[in-house]
Write a structure and sequence with these properties.
Order of helices and strands: HHHHHHHHHHHHHHHHHHHHHH
Number of helices: 22
Distance between the termini: 25 Å
Number of strands: 0
Strand content: under 5%
Keywords: Cell membrane, Membrane, Transferase, Transmembrane, Transmembrane helix
Family: Belongs to the glycosyltransferase 87 family.
Transmembrane segments: 47-66, 147-167, 179-210, 216-242, 312-334, 340-359, 380-400, 415-434
Radius of gyration: 23 Å
Number of domains: 1
Organism: Streptomyces corynorhini
Helix content: 55-70%
Structural class: mainly alpha
Membrane topology: Multi-pass membrane protein
Length: 496
């Protein structure tokens, strides 16, 4: 066992930059001068990790905005094909007109023209869209569309910084993991397609609160996140199983009640005063046909046979239930209680993989969870490469289908390959997370003796209910591995 002095030195290594603990990060840093040294502008009191990560997140977000400039300048307004061939499509300017914001219609209360009838987004997202319309200056329609996108981009940039900062602070001993979020290429490319970053930011803040043992704040934030997008409520499932294994039912009940309370506080006024508009999001989700990005689309395109919406809803639900049952069995039989972030990633990934639609911005749901679940640069970048290929694939496919006889873009078979790459990449990362759970010695987050730094009250809690025969007790302090000092984030010998 290390001495108290050695442990103090060992436990103060949160300033170690990723280029000094990850071989892929070190190799990539050669493009900008090599790994950080003693005089780098971070880790030495000049620029704290959270500040550096926030600045990088802003820079990458700005690059993503630059990538949308062809559309901002002209392609959004000159037919569908151009915005696809330039891969710069965004829902934001189109819905400014299509959902009545340009005409000052009130979401959920004022009826829209056409088949949509009401805004098909959850209440908190609708409020976000409405506030952005209030801040949009007057002028010509094209100018207002451009400004509406710009205002939304500014608000979404704040969400992006919140996400990066929350991930940076969730694992106290690994603040530089936040760079994975800030530098994620799919994050920059998809950040301004839609309004998903609002829910992602609230979810990341909730994860931070849970890691600090604040169950009430966690529940409030998850409730708000669910009022912006449906997927955050899924995190309550794995959390229940973890609290069951650790006997932390009081904390879970607090989180559950807070979630319900904050969700109702946002939804109840609209639910009572505009019930038809409020329920549009839920009916639209149920009635939506098989759409882009899902393996269901590959099936229908390859067989030439459509699947009715009720059947695909049932099949998707059954697959999701089976996936959740597998996560339940994994949690209760694992040698050590899985980390909260690991299970959160798995359950959201299962929802994405089984869903009947996968919009390119859905990758934003997974990025913070993936970083917290498995902060390894090699595997994260492999997955990101698959997602970038899908991002390009969907726009090139839409360009092909909207360019008439010119057939510019990617044919159906090529788009199916892009979907398959997205699915395989996500499954690859899921498989690695499952392996880390089954073989906890390979979990890089635990290599320094940590248990569950994102687990809050679950961190180092004793097991109360397990089904596995090879359950291992939680180590109560950092240890040396094979007689060597372990730097934060560096796996033991043989770890992936």
């Amino acid at each position: 066992m290390p001495s108290a002095e050695e442990r103090t030195v060992h436990q103060d290594r949160s300033d170690v930059p990723p280029t000094r603990r990850d071989e892929v990060a070190a190799a990539g840093s050669e493009l900008i001068g090599g790994p950080a040294g003693r005089r780098a502008w971070f880790g030495s009191g000049r620029l704290a990790p959270v500040q550096a990560v926030a600045l990088v997140a802003i820079g990458m977000f700005a690059l993503g905005m630059v990538q949308k400039m062809p559309c901002y300048n002209w392609a959004w307004f000159r037919g569908a094909s151009s915005q696809y061939t330039h891969a710069c499509y965004s829902d934001i300017p189109h819905l400014f007109l299509g959902r009545g914001f340009a005409d000052n219609l009130v979401p959920y209360f004022d009826r829209l023209s056409g088949d949509m009838q009401y805004l098909e987004y959850p209440v908190l997202t609708g409020l976000f869209m409405e506030v952005a319309s209030w801040l949009t200056p007057g002028g010509s329609i094209q100018y207002r569309e451009q400004m509406y996108w710009m205002v939304n981009a500014g608000m979404l940039m704040i969400c992006a910084v919140v996400i990066a900062v929350c991930v940076t602070r969730t694992h106290r001993r690994r603040p530089w993991d936040g760079l994975l979020v800030a530098l994620a290429p799919a994050f920059a490319l998809t950040a301004t397609i839609n309004w998903d970053l609002l829910a992602v930011a609230l979810t990341a803040a909730a994860m931070l609160m849970w890691s600090r043992g604040r169950a009430l704040a966690f529940g409030i934030l998850i409730g708000l996140a669910t009022a912006a997008k449906l997927y955050p409520v899924l995190l309550l499932g794995p959390l229940l199983v973890l609290c069951w294994r650790a006997g932390k039912f009081r904390e879970y009940a607090t989180a559950l009640l807070a979630t319900a309370g904050s969700w109702l506080a946002v939804n109840l006024p609209v639910m009572v005063l505009a019930p038809e508009g409020w329920k549009k999001f839920y009916t639209f989700s149920q009635e939506r046909q098989v759409d882009f990005g899902s393996f269901w689309l590959i099936i229908t395109q390859r067989t030439g046979k459509s699947i009715d919406v009720e059947s695909v809803n049932t099949y998707a639900m059954v697959l999701m239930v089976l996936a959740c049952a597998g996560i339940l069995a994994l949690t209760l039989t694992a040698p050590r209680r899985p980390r909260f972030a690991q299970l959160a990633f798995l359950v959201v990934a299962a929802f994405i993989l089984t869903n009947k639609v996968y919009s390119p911005q859905y990758v934003l749901w997974l990025i913070p969870l993936a970083v917290l679940a498995r902060p390894r640069w090699r595997d994260f970048l492999i997955w990101q490469a698959c997602e970038v290929m899908y991002f390009l694939g969907i726009w090139m496919y839409l360009a092909y289908t909207t360019s008439g006889d010119a057939h510019k873009g990617l044919p159906t078979e090529g788009y199916q390959l892009a979907i398959a790459l997205h699915l395989v990449g996500t499954l690859y990362l899921c498989a690695l997370v499952v392996r880390d759970i089954l073989v906890p010695e390979r979990d890089g987050v635990r290599a320094d003796g940590s248990d569950d730094p994102s687990g809050g009250v679950l961190d180092r809690a004793a097991d109360r209910f397990v089904l596995g025969r090879n359950v291992r007790p939680v180590r109560q302090e950092a240890q040396l591995v094979e007689g060597e000092r372990v730097e934060w984030g560096v796996p033991p010998r043989g770890a992936a």
